[in-house]
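Per reviewer request, we include the raw input and output of the structure prediction for the construct analysed in the revised manuscript.
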Amino acid sequence: MNNSPKNAKSIWDKLSEWWIRGIEDDESSEYVEIIVPLLEGILTQKKTILDAGTGTGRMAQEAGKVTEHATIVGGDISIRQLRHAKEVTSGIQFVQHSIEQMPFKNEQFDAVICSMVLEHLESLLEAVSEIARILERNGTLLIIMNHPVFQSPDSGAVTSHSHDSEPIWGIGNYLIETSEIEKISSEMEVLYAHRTLSTYFNALSEENLMIENVIEKSLSSGLPGIPELLMILCRKVQ
């Protein structure tokens, strides 16, 4: 598969209008309601924060609201999304780059947010290595992603033949890792890489990013007992 930075830029530039419209919907607002209290708990004392894969700048803006005098940087590969982000936010520095090759100094940031990004990358190891490089020792990494167990390919609600039974969520081929360009409409497509939890956890461990907390959350649009979001809080220990 050709998912070079150039190709990824083309995909995300093409998706930009669809993505921008999507942040206005109710489900996106619910994501923010879940995540903001978490940001308040971990970013208050931080001074240099990168929102890696910032898109429209939503998380970067929320990070700015919970900190005082912090330098907030939003990085993204799509120039179209960055243009929109500059229009709707204030006090944030925006930089165009791929997450696998970031133009920042070693240990430049004391916190990195990576929201809804890793599952759209071909090279997880390169991305995690770069994040570790720019994160200072004892710095914080917050990863937010679609839950790889319950959002694995072919997972979804299962139709029950009994009206009295509880809704059932079927899990697809979780252990089979895939990386495919998926069509999300007749004209739009996006890379989605399914990986197991062990792949993510081991990639973090190899870069001395120690997992301190794991949070799973459901959304009102889904089943209350099924987490759609996975949040991983890490600290760089070396």
